[in-house]
Design a protein that fits this description.
Blueprint: E1 5-9, H1 16-27, E2 31-33, H2 34-42, H3 46-53, H4 55-70, E3 76-78, H5 89-96, E4 97-103, H6 106-113, H7 127-145, E5 150-153, H8 159-175
Parallel strand pairs: 1-3, 1-4, 2-3, 4-5
């Protein structure tokens, strides 16, 4: 199957949205953030969806959004950090896109996320609880993220340099598929 899309996976705070936007400009393709699409479609924030409908409903919304997006024209897609870990989402992504795992250590993730109140799974945690949550969540999710076609340390250079490296790496991967 022709992998028309590029999908960025990784933990919250790994740079999926910012690098995805830069990559989409380099590739001259639309950028889609699945969380933003879910918010727009449901008229509720991610936090509201979690609180009012629960994580299970949110994960079902994610799957529906993924299925809709992969049927559309070529794009660069940033998915929520948990999406690859539910149902067979990672397999579906790999079948329809070049997937990129933006890797980051738990210490770097903590530095990025420690003051972020927008993410529902991080709310109400002390710094020690947040460190432990990031460590354990990264450990649980890594086997799914590791299934991605490409792995890159998202702090290996400036965002512009990383976007250029991703552009070259994704195009190289497509040539050899």
């Amino acid at each position: 199957m022709n992998k028309r899309h590029t999908i960025l996976v990784g933990m919250p705070g790994s740079g999926k949205s910012s690098l995805g936007l830069m990559l989409s400009k380099l590739m001259d393709l639309p950028f889609i953030d699945t969380d933003s699409q879910i918010v727009e479609k449901n008229g509720k924030s991610i936090v509201e969806i979690f609180h009012e409908l629960g994580e299970k409903s949110f994960r079902e919304f994610e799957r529906q959004m993924l299925e809709e997006i992969i049927e559309q024209n070529d794009s660069v897609i940033s998915v929520g950090g948990g999406m690859p870990c539910f149902l067979d989402n990672m397999d579906l992504m790999n079948a329809n896109a070049v997937t990129v795992y933006l890797k980051l250590s738990s210490a770097n993730l903590f530095q990025t996320l420690k003051n972020d109140s927008r993410r529902p799974l991080l709310q109400g945690k002390t710094q020690d609880e947040l460190k432990e949550y990031i460590r354990s969540t990264l450990q649980q999710r890594s086997p799914y993220y590791e299934k991605a076609d490409i792995h890159i340390n998202s702090r290996a250079g400036s965002p512009a340099k990383l976007a250029r490296l991703l552009y070259e790496t994704v195009n190289e991967k497509r040539r050899h598929k």
